[in-house]
Every structure is written in C-alpha cells, then in structure tokens.
Sequence to fold (139 residues):
Amino acid sequence: MSIVEVGPERIDLLLAIGPGLFDHAIRPDQARAFLASPLNVLLLACEGELAVGMATGTVLLHPDQPPVMFVNEVGTRETHQRQGVAEALMRHMLDLARARGCEGLWLGTEPGNAPALGLYRKLGGKEVPFIGFGWDEAL
Fold:
C-alpha cells in the first residue's frame, strides 16, 4: 500500500475513484477547488490502481495562534477496514501537518464510532469535550 498526496496536477486520480470510498460521488468542480488551495490536503491510500482509503485536511490559520491542521474526514473501503489503512493515513497526515509548520492537529468523530475512537486513542490523541453545531446542511 502506498500513500499518495493528491495535488491539482493529479486530479485524474480523484476523478477516477468510483463509489465506496467517499460519502458521495466526486464533483469535479469541488475537487478542483479543493485541490487548488495550498491549505488543503488530500491523501489516498492505494493498492495498485485502487484507492482503498482517503483522508482530507485543511490548515487553519488564525491571527493570534500558530497554524493547526483540521482533519475533515478519514475513510476506508469496507473491504479494507481493520487492516491499518486509516492508521497509515493518519500517521501520514500528522507528519505532513508537522512538516507544514502546524503546531497541532485536531478532528471530530461521532461518540459511537468505536473503530475511529480506538484508532485516535492508539495514535495518542487526547479526548477533549466538544459540542458541535451545524447550520443548513453543513453536517
């Protein structure tokens, strides 16, 4: 398995992904916009030509704090779950965030998502109290 950081020049990799990895079909306009920003990161875990996992993140900038990485989502094909794919993606994302000068990384997950909770705990993440709010169809 290899981890590939997808940039704008490799949008073909993203557009070739079929169902079963992302929550929805890839929208070319949104994919181009996401990849165009140097603050965004899209990682694919690949076995040969097949993308078996993905993670996306965004560097968050603040006027009074150092940059941090927010992990938008992590996903693994059902056929490849519990095989270390998400762990490899998260380790790569942590390394990438540090290399980009981020002084931290954070994410959220559902309280009932036992596999994700186990992974993030295994990787040394600290649980913090958090209440999320969403407007319109954001969540």
In short: DSSP finds four helices and five strands in the chain. The mean pLDDT is 93.
